[in-house]
Amino acid sequence: MKNLASFAICVLLASCGASADKVTVKIDGSSTVFPITEAVAVEFQREHKDVRVTIGVSGTGGGFKKFCVGDTDINDASRMIKDKEIKKAKEHGVGFIEMPIAYDGLSVVINKDNNFVDFLTVEELSKIWKVGSQVRTWKDVRSTWPDVEMKLFGPGVDSGTFDYFTEVINGKPGACRSDFTMSEDDNVLVRGIAGDKNALGFFGYAYYVENRDSLRVVPIDNGAGPITPTMETINKGTYAPLSRPIFIYVSEAESDRTEVKNFVHFYLDHAPELVKAVGYVPLPDSVYVRDRKRFDDKVTGRATTGG
Fold this sequence. Notes:
Layout: H1 4-16, E1 23-29, H2 34-47, E2 51-55, H3 59-67, E3 74-77, H4 83-91, E4 96-105, E5 107-111, E6 120-121, H5 122-129, E7 151-155, H6 160-170, E8 181-183, H7 186-194, E9 199-203, H8 205-210, E10 215-217, E11 220-221, E12 226-227, H9 231-236, E13 243-251, H10 258-277, H11 285-296
Parallel strand pairs: 1-2, 1-3, 6-11, 7-8, 7-9
Antiparallel strand pairs: 3-13, 4-13, 5-9, 5-10, 11-12
Helix pairs in contact: 1-2, 2-10, 10-11
């Protein structure tokens, strides 16, 4: 598998070297979805040298702030669009086409040299991350663990990963202690956890896969015994409650532009192989067929509810 950072370099070079007359597809949003979209962009630009694809990583929420006022063509999202974001999009005349593009297993990770954590329960995760948490050391989580300070790392508040994790673990999106190192860039979190023996954090499965030599993933017990995130457990949904779909959102107004249409078609045609290549779980082929039909027919609103 290609290094995720190399994809970033490839697209950056393609963007910097682009001539002024090249047409542009503008994308922003989730750092979790970023590896997939960037892999697609690299392959797409090899075949469409007249198109420049720019990809920002301001988090799902940060991306929607731009997308809902018409500043971008596509938003990468690790959660569904919120009602308040739909309202903002309507106020600015922005219709959106929602398309799920992969499964992710949000991964809880520790330093590779941590030799005492065997698994965590959902209740223990909540104990660590809830608002007002009194957990300061590993011993505060489980009495048999060392009395050493725990260093926490997690996505920033504009991240869909942050919203999803806090909702399923703490019962409400955004409900979380604030005394942890946060970043919208998952690579920053990877480096922080890899550099501290007593660290714990969470982010998308692909970033764990890419850095498994320096990190250790923690099995999660949701009542049926500890389950490790893998392609199989994420696909089957047995890695619960941290398995989820991830999305791209395309502006209806921009979908008629040839470069946007070609990019989205390329994305859906190559998603199964590229999703897997960067460490996520492809959706069934029928979903990509449905996505393409929704896009070609300009079916706006939420894909699952029609909202």
